[in-house]
Amino acid sequence: MEYVFRKATLNDLPQIWVILQKAILRRKEDGSNQWQDGYPNPTVIENDIAKGAGFVMADGDTITGYCAILINDEPAYAEIKGKWLTDGDFVVFHRVAISEDYLGKGLSGKMLNFIEDFAQRNNIHSVKADTNFDNGAMKHVFEKAGYIYCGEVFFRGSSRLAFEKEL
């Protein structure tokens, strides 16, 4: 299949929100506390789109995944308990979710490839991200994609695992 990675539009919001709601439920069913506090929500996604940071992966007209991508825009990363691999410019991604209909097809890895391509097109050679301690699925995706554990960062009152990949 030929997947397209593009900026999200407000017209995509209904499909994105369905994908995120199912991902929130999967986190809960997996016993994770991640995304169990009303975040993310449609307002967060609308803000991503308004800032030009919301991206979708699509199979034709069907959205297969969503994420937010930002450049040098994660204040929490300045205070890491540990050490990043690099100190320069970086791309950071958040709110990664794959459609339930497309699980098990390697799309998380494909999305990371798109994110890394985005970084390189912007002449940035570092991608940083984080996840909950109890999100085994995302930790596996990071490991498989060659991300290195760098320490802990703190968001909304809780500690999260921080990862980086040099490109």
Automatic annotation (TrEMBL):
InterPro entries: Acyl_CoA_acyltransferase, GNAT_dom. Residues 3-167 form the N-acetyltransferase domain. Pfam families: Acetyltransf_1. Coiled coil: none annotated. This is GNAT family N-acetyltransferase.
